[in-house]
Amino acid sequence: MTWTKKDRMHNTDWQITLRKFLGRKDGEKKGPENGMRDEKDEDDEMEEFTKLYKEWKGLGDNFSNVPTLFTKLPSDKDPLLLKLREESRAVFLQRRSRELLDNDELQKLWFLLDKNHTPPLHGEEQMISYQDFLLVAAEAGSKCQPFFQASVFSKLMQNDPFGRVPIMQFFNYVMRKVWLHQTRIGLSLYDVAGQGYLKESDLENYILELIPTLPQLSGLERTFYSFYVCTAVRKFFFFLDPLRTGRIKIQDVLACSFLDDLLELRDEDLSKELQESNWFSAPSALRVYGQYLNLDKDRNGMLSKQELARYGTGTLTDVFLDRVFQECLTYEGEMDYKTYLDFVLAMENRREPQALRYLFRILDVQHRGHLNVFSLNFFFRAIQEQMKLHGQEPVSFQDVNDEIFDMVKPADPLKLTLQDLINR
After folding, report:
1. What pLDDT score was predicted for residue 194?
2. Same domain, 258 and 172
3. Sign of torsion over alpha carbons 164, 168, 169, 172
4. Are 95 and 130 contacting, i.e. CB atoms less than 8 angstroms apart?
5. How many other C-beta atoms lie within 10 A of the C-beta of residue 112?
6. Domain count, the chain
7. Using CA atoms, how far apart are residues 302 and 333, in angstroms rounded to an integer?
8. Residue 294 belongs to some domain of the structure
9. Is-cis flag, bond preceding 74, omega within 30?
10. Which of 9, 74, 175, 348 could cross-link 78 (Cys pair, CB 3.0–4.6 Å)?
């Protein structure tokens, strides 16, 4: 630090003042009975020091020089601030969108890569060396520069003896990056708070407006749109929000494969097999909703425990169904379509951690965070009763219990935790 003459003089002034103050206090306290200063004196000294220091530095008590580290979101009572924030975000996102490569620029990039590829071919693939890679970068323009980094080239390198990379692999990398940024901007338009999260209603609006752009959904009737949107959104929230916070990160949406599955419906020639395996396809959504309607015998739009008992092959035990209705959100003892979707997703994806968490909550009858012999036997007794009703030979619980623990290999040999099941 460089001290000016004025600083040194000011520094000396408050040092002298402080010494005088301390000398006066020492003089007051000196004597056979007051050889030591008490805590009050130390507090007075600190107060005097703080006062002098603030005067020297020109500081007040209002901390006006401290930068703002957090700004509260405007409330509904401030419509102008809300509108300003909304317009500012829209302008920012539009600017970011203009920075992305459009179709014409992508075509130009492919032309340059094809023109400057480095022979010989690797099989049937065109390759490009780092020198030619830099030549393309110089011609491609400023928008393309982030893709023409040495780190990108090195990541795409394979076992080519000439140290080249496939131009198709590089071009796919560029298109994937552009798509991710475009999708991020598109999702951010629905992020009302601008915090990087989407609430359920935000994602519902996004998918509802996406439906007309997906040829594979062109056959859906408008009356089914709300049920389709609910079916699609539920998968995002079941897997990306297992703790039920009511919101999911946009980053998590981009990182998972669900958007790829959803946007796969742009392909007009999508095979029947791929449609049936895609949760977001029209046949899949109609299948799930059709099953719900078939279970709803009294046509009240809700499922009772007796109605859900017919799910699948109808082999769910009363004990298991009781626990489902105890742990899951119900309305006067009945399950709505949204809760039913969670149940279906858990049953159809039993190996996934989120499904295991859902089912573990049902199996953990004692709410201890682990399953023991009592928990397993509690459900197994009901299975044995069903086996007897169907004339099947009963199985020993001890044999089943030993087999379960042998398969899972839990950290504690006497209990199973959720983490044990996930790690198996």
Report:
1. 84
2. no
3. positive
4. no
5. 20
6. 4
7. 10
8. no
9. no
10. 74
Mean pLDDT by 10 residues, the chain (424 residues): 48 56 55 54 72 64 60 76 84 92 95 95 92 95 94 92 95 95 93 90 96 95 97 98 93 94 92 93 97 96 96 94 93 94 97 96 96 96 90 90 95 95 91
Integer Cα distance of 395 and 379 in angstroms: 14
Q: Which of 59, 85, 104 is the last residue of a domain?
A: 59
Domain residues for 265?
Answer: 195-283
User: Does some domain include residue 202?
Assistant: yes
165 in Cβ contact with 153 (< 8 Å): yes
User: Could you identify the residue written with the tokens 């599955």?
Assistant: 261
Amino acid at position 416, single letter: L
Look up residue 97 and give its amino acid. Answer: S
Q: In DSSP terms, which residues pair with 127 in a beta bridge?
A: 166
Residue 250 resides in a domain: yes
What pLDDT shows up at residue 25?
53
**DSSP code, position 190:** T
pTM above 0.70, yes or no: yes
Running DSSP on this structure, what letter comes out for residue 62?
T
Please report, in angstroms and rounded to a whole number, the separation of the first and last CA atoms in the chain.
60
Q: Which residues, including other chains, have CB under 8 Å from residue 267's CB and lie 6 or more apart? A: 215, 216
Asked if 410 and 398 count as a contact pair (C-beta separation under 8 A), the reply is no
